[in-house]
Amino acid sequence: MPWSRPVVAFGETSNEGDGPGGGQSSVIRGFNARRSSPTFAPMTTSIRPFEPRDAVALRQCVVALQEYERVIDARLRPGEMMADEYCDVLHSRCRDARGVILVADHDGEVAGFVCVLAEEKFTGLDDPPGNYALVTDLAVLDPFRRRGIGRLLLDAAELYARDANANELRISVLSRNAAARSFYLAKQFEPYLEILSKSLINCD
User: What is the rounded CA–CA span in Å between residue 129 and residue 108?
Assistant: First the structure.
């Protein structure tokens, strides 16, 4: 079933920050707040469900995210090599786990996206019973960073999970991605499981 929440847009101001209340004013989509100059129309960012016309932009976001993480782990495949198949997998996982891809629409341009699954199943016998919500990916393109768009996307993902009656929302992060880790901790995510890695190449 399509997500029925109304789309809310956020008007930009020159001092917009990343935190709550950091210069963002909630407005109805398509409405431009009046300023001192009657010809000035502030740019807006709205969070809305993915549409087929967003396919190229979604692929661009996936490539950018992969290349960012390749700086942390050079073993990862280049974004251009994996993006098409990865986008197909995202859509498939959304179908299987009651998920949605939400995009940040910044005055007609896709600035980023988040994919959230509302019913990801626990699979291990030593796991809790039932399901949990999972943010599989969150990315904001470089030209749109430091405008609070990542926060809007994550907030929308949490709202979607709550609307789906999920009891828990999870997200994974590379340990060396300090900026993302700090962002998630600031949004009240807590460490749950750590995977420790040891290279066995040229190891004495």
Answer: 42
Summarize pLDDT for 43-69 with one digit per residue, the tens.
Answer: 689 999 999 999 999 999 999 999 999
Q: Is 27 within the bounds of a domain?
A: no
Chain centre to alpha carbon of residue 73: 20
Q: Tell me how many domains the chain contains.
A: 1
- Domain assignment of residue 97, yes or no: yes
pTM of the model: 0.81
Measured in degrees and rounded to the nearest 5, phi and psi for residue 179 equal -65, -45
- What does DSSP assign to residue 33? -
DSSP state for residue 38 in the 8-state scheme? T
Task: Give the whole-angstrom CA distance, residue 139 versus residue 150.
Answer: 7
Residues 6+ apart with CB under 8 A from 153: 47, 102, 104, 112, 113, 114, 138, 140
Half-sphere exposure of 22 (CA within 13 A, CB side): 11
Paired sense of beta strands 109-121 and 44-49, if any: unpaired
**CA atoms of 138 and 112, how far apart (whole Å):** 8
83-118 burial by CB neighbour count: b if 16+ within 10 A, else e?
Answer: beebbeebeebbeebbbbbbbbbbeeebbbbbbbbb
Give the Cα separation of 13 and 34 in Å (integer): 12
Residue range(s) defining the domain that contains residue 102: 45-186
Handedness of CA 164, 170, 172, 173 (dihedral sign): positive
